[in-house]
């Protein structure tokens, strides 16, 4: 791979036809720069894809390895745990971690989070956000020459990625319900834009088929407890009452249990619920 030299203030100054000091004033948002000159410098910065260095320690050349993490909402259990694990391992290696949360859905929001990290002069990037093939390639391009690792993309996407195995989790969930004698099983998947959600759904299908069971319904949530509640309530209101549910994460499972209870049914006795992730709080959920 060709090591592309980062664009400097001198490069911007030469391109815009102004002095280094003028570019520095624009970058630092000084007020004594004419609007015309500011526009010319900003246009040059955009054309050259110049990323301002806003970290004073880095300007002094004293920065240790800095890893940037662009992530889905940290209000969700899995992303927060992944970031915590990255931070813990980075601490062991003497590296630092800076996090940028993807505030909206879509590839442009992910690219904005990446750019925010690049502005802090990270040494490498970890992208924990669901992306289809073309969007993932576009985000990788936005990473410029900074190494990037993706955690929620297809293993067929031609970029650096790590894919989590969901074989054991889906198998154990299905085997548990089958051992209890369940045949009427509903599936509540995560958002199918997520590779993890698709792999969990595929795993359920694989092991249900091995046991000659077809799910009586399939629903799609967004990982949140509220989506678990809404999807389960809608299912029950439609008159579809399974004896068991396989749910793609524990937060949606919590919402599903609330819907079951509010519908006058009993969790465990009427409808068994198997979540996924084994979150710490799940030990305090209703147990039967």
TrEMBL record:
<dbReference type="InterPro" id="IPR000843">
    <property type="entry name" value="HTH_LacI"/>
</dbReference>
<dbReference type="InterPro" id="IPR046335">
    <property type="entry name" value="LacI/GalR-like_sensor"/>
</dbReference>
<dbReference type="InterPro" id="IPR028082">
    <property type="entry name" value="Peripla_BP_I"/>
</dbReference>
<protein>
    <submittedName>
        <fullName>Lactose operon repressor</fullName>
    </submittedName>
</protein>
<dbReference type="GO" id="GO:0003700">
    <property type="term" value="F:DNA-binding transcription factor activity"/>
</dbReference>
<dbReference type="InterPro" id="IPR010982">
    <property type="entry name" value="Lambda_DNA-bd_dom_sf"/>
</dbReference>
<feature type="domain" description="HTH lacI-type">
    <location>
        <begin position="7"/>
        <end position="61"/>
    </location>
</feature>
<dbReference type="Pfam" id="PF00356">
    <property type="entry name" value="LacI"/>
</dbReference>
<dbReference type="GO" id="GO:0000976">
    <property type="term" value="F:transcription cis-regulatory region binding"/>
</dbReference>
<keyword id="KW-0804">Transcription</keyword>
<keyword id="KW-0805">Transcription regulation</keyword>
<dbReference type="Pfam" id="PF13377">
    <property type="entry name" value="Peripla_BP_3"/>
</dbReference>
<keyword id="KW-0238">DNA-binding</keyword>
């Amino acid at each position: 791979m060709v090591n592309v030299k980062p664009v400097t203030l001198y490069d911007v100054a030469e391109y815009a036809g102004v002095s280094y000091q003028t570019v520095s004033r624009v970058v630092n948002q000084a007020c004594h720069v004419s609007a015309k000159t500011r526009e010319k410098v900003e246009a040059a910065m955009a054309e050259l894809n110049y990323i301002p260095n806003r970290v004073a320690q880095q300007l002094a050349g004293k920065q240790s390895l800095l890893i940037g993490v662009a992530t889905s909402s940290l209000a969700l259990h899995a992303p927060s745990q992944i970031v915590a694990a990255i931070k813990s391992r980075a601490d062991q290696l003497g590296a630092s971690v800076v996090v940028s949360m993807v505030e909206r859905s879509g590839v442009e929001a992910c690219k904005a989070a990446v750019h925010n990290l690049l502005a802090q002069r990270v040494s490498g990037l970890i992208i924990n956000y669901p992306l289809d093939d073309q969007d993932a390639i576009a985000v990788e391009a936005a990473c410029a020459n900074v190494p990037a690792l993706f955690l929620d993309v297809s293993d067929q996407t031609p970029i650096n990625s790590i894919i989590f195995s969901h074989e054991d989790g889906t198998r154990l969930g299905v085997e548990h319900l089958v051992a209890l004698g369940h045949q009427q099983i509903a599936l509540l998947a995560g958002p199918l834009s997520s590779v993890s959600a698709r792999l969990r759904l595929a795993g359920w299908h694989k092991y249900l088929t091995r046991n000659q069971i077809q799910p009586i319904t399939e629903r799609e949530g967004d990982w949140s407890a509220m989506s678990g509640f809404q999807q389960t309530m809608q299912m029950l209101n439609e008159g579809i009452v399974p004896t068991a549910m396989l749910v793609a994460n524990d937060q949606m499972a919590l919402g599903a249990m609330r819907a079951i209870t509010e519908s006058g049914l009993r969790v465990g006795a009427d409808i068994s619920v198997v979540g996924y992730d084994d979150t710490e709080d799940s030990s305090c959920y209703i147990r039967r």
